[in-house]
Amino acid sequence: MIQTIKSLAQQWAPEFIGIRHHLHAHPELSFQEHDTSRFIQEKLKEYGIPFRAPVAGTGIVAVIKGKNPDKKIIALRADMDALPIEEANEVSYKSKNPGIMHACGHDVHSTCILGAARILQETRGLWEGTVKIIFQPGEEKHPGGASLMIKDGALEDPRPQAILGLHVLPDMETGHLGFRSGMYMASADEIYFTIRGKGGHAAAPHLTVDTILVASQLVVSLQQVISRQCNPFSPSVLSICAFNGGHTTNVIPSEVNLKGTFRAMDEQWRFRAHELIRRQATELAHGMGAEIDVNILVGYPCVYNNEEVTGKARSLAEDFMGKQQVLDTEMRMGAEDFAFYSQVIPACFFRLGTGNKEKGISSGVHTPTFNIDERAIEIGMGTMAWLAAQW
Predict the structure, then answer these.
(1) In this predicted model, what pLDDT tens digit does every residue of 88-99 receive, in sequence order?
(2) What is the dihedral of CA 82, 313, 177, 8, to 10 degrees?
(3) I need a labelling partner for 29 at 20 to 30 A (CA). Which of 71, 148, 332, 337 fits?
(4) Are residues 287 and 346 in the same domain?
(5) How far apart are CA 220 and CA 172, in angstroms?
(6) What domain range is 323 assigned to?
């Protein structure tokens, strides 16, 4: 079976590299993946794979049944959306949509899962159980397409016993896979502050509420929530990333707006921190004579890799790739809406090495020069097919 899957992955790799080029050249923003969804649906029809669409807007759920389809049910997930980034790569498949780019590798994820689906369909007489293939919208944007897919029944009829997902990793050389059990990626919440007070002439600050000063004090003081309240063995990050207020040199503005992100690896601490942030901001602002609105937009939860599922996936990956090609990967403060699946059913989210330093392919995700060593396509589609077939 392993040789059959490897042979098919190798045989079809050029075709699926072409599919990746098409997806990369035609990126679409979160929840706007209409052409991408239509393209994937046409491919599923071509491969004879039944599916349901639309799910949660542009999502797709396909089902492939092997022998004894009730014996086990496993799901494979891919995201489809791109980012609002102008691509700087000079390649034949460069984005044709101005200001939009597949800078996080979702074109790769969709290609690998589509390739795995074709392999599984071709070999369905050789393995047992049922495989659900999930193509979801909106990973990059609140509230996360995964949450909407779940609400729209993507994990029902039939319900998977486990779900697997992969993500490109340019820091890891192509030919390697990375796994980590337990807590893996952070929760992510958006924080918005609006500080208001009487504005006025900069030469007479005593007649105003200095909203710039209040906001500046708040940016610094909020770090005490992390440094003095968080358990040092539970990683947490609070970053204020936007500071907007005022328009000239001699007027103290009546309003200042701050925006930031809060990341945590502990769900209990996460929501306690929300209370501390609100209290710190409110009391500091009031103490300096200002009014403040605090809006915390609860985003993705933590990604938790079920130990049993991840251990099994890693063992199978070692059988497929060779033990030396499967590595440990570190905990990450980045966030992923795959977390919603991991909160509902046992899950494993692992990394697909896509870097190649010798070829200069090393740019990080979310950058205008991100790209991959496309040998990773064959590895990704083959590995996913193998995991699902042998589960």
Answers:
(1) 999 999 999 999
(2) -80
(3) 332
(4) no
(5) 35
(6) 2-185+302-390
